[in-house]
Amino acid sequence: MKRKILLLTVILLISCPPAFPAADSEWEIIPAIHRINELIRVDNDLWGATNSGLFRFDLESGSFEVFTTAHGLSSMQIESMTLDERGNLILGMGNAYVDVFNLETHQCTRLSDFKMNTKIFSIYALHSYDGEVFVGTDIGVSRLVYFEDIGRYLIEGNYVTLGNFPTEITAEAIHVYDGGLWVGTEDGLARGDLSLPYLESPESWTNYTTSSGLSDNDVSALEVFRDTLYIAARNASYGLNRMISLSQGFETINFGASSNIEFLKAHNDTLYLGRFFGVYRIVGDEIQRFGETDAKALCLEFEADGSMWAGTDLTRLSTANTRLGGLKSWNGEAWIIHAVEGALVETVTDVLVQDDGSLWVTGQLDLGYGNGVLCHFDGIHWINLGRQYENYELTNQSVSPDSFFWYRTRQITEDHNGDVWISSDGRGVGWFEFAGDSIQSKGYYTTTTGHLFNIDSYSHYCVVRDLLTDRWGNIWICNSEADMNESGDRPIAVVPTDFIEDPVAYPNWYYLRMKEESGASLQYSAFYVDRIEEDSYGRKWFGGNNNTGDDKGVWVLDDNDTPISDLDDQWTHITGLPSDSITTIVTDRDGIVWVGTPAGVQYFYPDENAQYLAGNRVDLYGLPSGAGVNVIAVDPQNNKWFGTNQGVSILASDNFTWLDTYTDIDGSFPSPLPGGVVQAIAFNPVTGEAYLGTDKGLARLQTPYKQMGSSVTEISIITDSNPFLIGDGSGARLHFDASGLSETTAMKIFTAAGFLVRELTKNEIILGWDGRNLRGELVGSGIYLLLAYDPDGNAEVGKVAVIHR
């Protein structure tokens, strides 16, 4: 968990006026582009469908513009793309929406029909032909027809039985050729006769398989070259096939190995292939590669002058050799990468905002194997530190050959010098600083260094799932699943401040065992330490992900401010939580401790006596974004943010009012989040920015939740709230910029003639004025005066125009 260093024993209780994000919110998705699935050139613009949104690359200036869920896309992951005859890009999304992106207005509309079908999970292929669009899904092919009178596409045909192939087979490639609709599947190739009126009938389709001459049934790509249909069979050693005739079937092209073909592209009398190791072309009876071994090529496009651009995927060639994916141009001798700067991380596990506004982000790239990353943003540039990338040509990047990044990075904590400690799923803990313009390692601590312990039966595999900087500056490390024989049943490591100052002069760490309430040692095999938090009394709260039996729940440690010794430790055991798995623990600004689980949330009112904590708890019901809580974070105004498996919900500081929710839990409309699984949340208290880490990338939300000042200096109304529009059933509220108010602010509202309309209590200021007077009635239209004041005699006057509709 993140924790700033407090050198006081008293926790400051802050109750600050929040406002609704809808009143003044702005989303930005930080791109993490490493895979480009499709490229289309329109005039001097190159459009790319990626794992992290849609980009426009200006071929003249070399600049990028990225469109994401913040711009209305229904998903960050775009699997397929085609250009229709109306100047729209048709986008096949990874969450089964089909988006229609207008190239002139940059406005996006969507078709939700596929998303609402429970059998469809993604859009795999799109093909535009004669004003219509054919869509490949998990259950076959659909035909979209554009209706001018309503200005939108509608589904006019669903083809789920493609001849003799199994019903509802996935359509991976689509092409129209010689009067036929050709569909590539994992069982072979199907041709629908477009001259027939009813393609829904299996009799309208003809099937081609290995018995028809194909080298393999798993068809990955289709292309027409020199008036002949070419087929790529993914798993065959010789994967390139071409059609002889409808009656004679196909033949395999046997010159040169051509396995793992991702795309086929015909251009200027040349056929190009995309494979695992780069871009190839057919020259005579040979297959030639462009340049040296490179990242997997997924698509290809050409400029008017013949210049070649490739879309590639980040590719692991060997244990210590990963080629960077993205947009690449061919200069005649080698591929040159053109990168969109951003946080090169998809599954975000943690975010830390430092006092100067810089960011640290942990997580991994989703490549099907361990690929941990550490990202830093200094306000201008992103730096990404990860596994060794050979020929890594990006500017403002760092690399590390150390095996620390062969595993997912987990949590971040900041020490008292402003450096960060990072936990890992397999390599213990790393200590880093940002120096100059790069991330520098200060040390790695794991089983091999003698500082931490491996899990049982797995030598050198050291798991740390959480860590914390306490109020004295010591760092606590949860050595999850540590081998009890190796660790001596001491799964909690404490790094003292002396070590942080001078590791050579003060090399020792300290290790603590967990104990029963009676003082007897708790066998660690019965409780894995995965989560840690410090409450307002300095006690440490521990939870585990999958603990069961008598030792499940939460354990609370009072170390009596002697973390280097466990002789005076007092432990309290709390059970009866919504789930045995504890996913997050956090202390809010009122000292309340919130515990999140996959089945809901409980919160505990502070008490000096830990024995009374279990009796002072409350269950939180009805989370709008679902009960599966991954993270709870407290913003500068003491609102609680709940990141779940289906989005994020914001609870006001009164612990009763839900302020906002971002989720697509009902399935009818996507949220602006890059991914639905929210696993990390952090705040910039000066700017009000909220950073949300998801399973599909990092988002920034501009909110009015800023840190308040020490006195009243001004009344600044959130821009969208003036004039203040009210009416029956509108639910509107007037919100204020918190930076001009203090924690003790009170407010009175008057008419222009000086008559008192309403006095707002602290909680009412926090929630915002609802436009009602002392009798609970909506006020009439007019100009109203606002008087904000504090006990120190500071006061400011403002005014607002109210329109009662």
Kindly describe this structure:
There is one protein chain. This protein has 805 residues and is mainly beta. A 5-stranded mixed beta sheet has the order 59-63-62-60-61. The protein has a 4-stranded antiparallel beta sheet with strand order 1-58-57-56, with no helix packed on it. Strands 2-3-4-5 form a 4-stranded antiparallel beta sheet, with no helix packed on it. The protein is globular, with a radius of gyration of 30 Å. The chain starts with 25 loop residues before the first strand and ends with a strand. The model is unreliable at 1-25 and 389-401 (pLDDT under 50).
Summary keywords:
disordered N terminus, globular, mainly beta, 805 residues, 4-stranded antiparallel sheet, 2% helix, 5-stranded mixed sheet
Task: List the SSEs and their pairings.
Blueprint: E1 26-30, E2 36-42, E3 45-50, E4 53-58, E5 64-67, E6 78-83, E7 88-93, E8 98-102, E9 108-111, E10 125-129, E11 132-137, E12 140-147, E13 152-159, E14 173-177, E15 180-185, E16 188-193, E17 205-208, E18 219-225, E19 228-233, E20 240-245, E21 249-252, E22 263-267, E23 270-275, E24 278-283, E25 286-289, E26 296-302, E27 308-313, E28 315-318, E29 321-323, E30 327-330, E31 335-338, E32 347-353, E33 359-364, E34 372-377, E35 382-385, E36 409-414, E37 420-424, E38 429-435, E39 438-445, E40 466-469, E41 475-478, H1 484-487, E42 492-495, H2 497-501, E43 510-512, E44 531-534, E45 540-543, E46 554-558, E47 570-574, E48 584-587, E49 593-597, E50 600-604, E51 617-620, E52 629-634, E53 640-644, E54 647-651, E55 658-662, E56 678-684, E57 689-694, E58 697-702, E59 724-726, E60 746-751, E61 756-760, H3 762-767, E62 782-789, E63 795-804
Parallel strand pairs: 59-63
Antiparallel strand pairs: 1-58, 2-3, 3-4, 4-5, 6-7, 7-8, 8-9, 10-11, 11-12, 12-13, 14-15, 15-16, 16-17, 18-19, 19-20, 20-21, 22-23, 23-24, 24-25, 26-27, 27-30, 28-29, 30-31, 32-33, 33-34, 34-35, 36-37, 37-38, 38-39, 40-41, 41-42, 42-43, 44-45, 45-46, 46-47, 48-49, 49-50, 50-51, 52-53, 53-54, ...
